[in-house]
Design goal:
single chain; alpha+beta; two-stranded antiparallel sheet; 3 helices; 51% helix; binds zinc ion
């Protein structure tokens, strides 16, 4: 069962990347960030390195949370189905 499309949800999940120069928040999706090592600030154009330990940890945590959530929803749905199936 894959009705939730958790992988897609993760790829499209938006994260905020703060610019170290002007402290603007730059919104990027996880899927976009996955294959890139840096981006430039929407506000001031400064290069923002995406490979920092902090940011990677944040990406991993977000992924894990979404997967757990997806599993819980899938389980709940299947319980409901079982309940209605009588
Ligand atoms: Zn900036």
């Amino acid at each position: 069962m894959d009705i939730l499309g958790i992988d897609e949800l993760i790829e499209q999940r938006e994260m905020e990347v703060e610019c170290h120069s002007c402290h603007a928040s730059n919104t990027r999706t996880l899927g976009w960030m996955r294959n890139r090592h840096e981006t430039s600030c929407d506000s001031c154009g400064e290069v923002i390195v995406l490979g920092t330990a902090d940011l990677r940890a944040q990406v991993r945590n977000t992924e894990r949370l979404l997967r757990v959530l997806g599993q819980q929803l899938t389980e709940q749905l299947s319980h409901h189905r079982a309940g209605w199936g009588g």
